[in-house]
Amino acid sequence: DKFQGKHTAATAFTMMSLGLFCFGLASSWGLWILVAFVILFGVGMGGSTVQRAILSRTMFGRTNFGTVFGIMMGINLTGGMIGAPLPGWVFDTSGTYDGIWYILAGLGIVAMITILRAPKTSNNP
Questions:
Q1: 54 and 15 in contact (C-beta within 8 Å)?
Q2: How far is Cα 112 from Cα 91, in angstroms, rounded to an integer?
Q3: How confident is the model over 64-106, as pLDDT tens digits?
Q4: Which of 23, 34, 50, 95 is the most exposed place for a label (fewest CB within 10 A)?
Q5: What is the Cα 110 distance to its own chain's centre?
Q6: pTM of the shown model
Q7: Residue 85 DSSP label
Q8: How many CA atoms lie within 13 A of 68 on its CB side?
Q9: Contact 13, 48 (CB under 8 A)
Q10: CA pseudo-torsion sign 113, 114, 120, 124
């Protein structure tokens, strides 16, 4: 509550992106970089999970909370269903994981920019 919700969510998305970037470097930098991945991605994922309900209420008000949160969770589920097997499919078709971690990290940066640009639309916080 001390910080604006969209700034903490943007920080969480940035941490997840940096973690995925570290994961992509693991094959060339060695396994020690996985420590950075675990810390950055883990804290970022936990932080973004907590922020979902707070942001949906802050941005859309309590009247629309159920609808907005339901849509957010549906999108989250779809991303989880696609995002988990996607690196495996990339490896099966190309023989390497190179690139997919950076693409996923880039999507996290897109999420960070989107959340920072989102206006506060609710008059009913």
A1: no
A2: 27
A3: 888 988 998 999 899 889 988 999 999 999 998 888 999 999 9
A4: 95
A5: 9
A6: 0.83
A7: T
A8: 16
A9: yes
A10: negative
| CA quadruple 98, 99, 102, 107: dihedral sign | negative
- Provide the token pair at 95: 């023989």
Query: Which residue is associated with the tokens 């549906």?
Result: 74
Burial of residue 24 (number of CB atoms within 10 Å: 0-12, 13-18, 19+): buried
Residues 20-39 pLDDT 10s: 999 999 888 888 899 999 99
Joined together, the tokens standing for residue 115 give 């959340």
Place of tokens 């490896």: 91
The phi and psi torsions of 22 (rounded to 5 degrees) equal -65, -40
Q: Are 13 and 109 in contact (CB under 8 A)?
A: yes
Q: What is the DSSP string of 63-123?
A: TSHHHHHHHHHHHHHHHHHHHTTHHHHHHHHHS--TTHHHHHHHHHHHHHHHHHH-----S
Q: At what angle do helices 100-117 and 86-94 cross, to 10 degrees?
A: 140
Helix axes 65-83, 33-60, angle to 10 degrees: 150
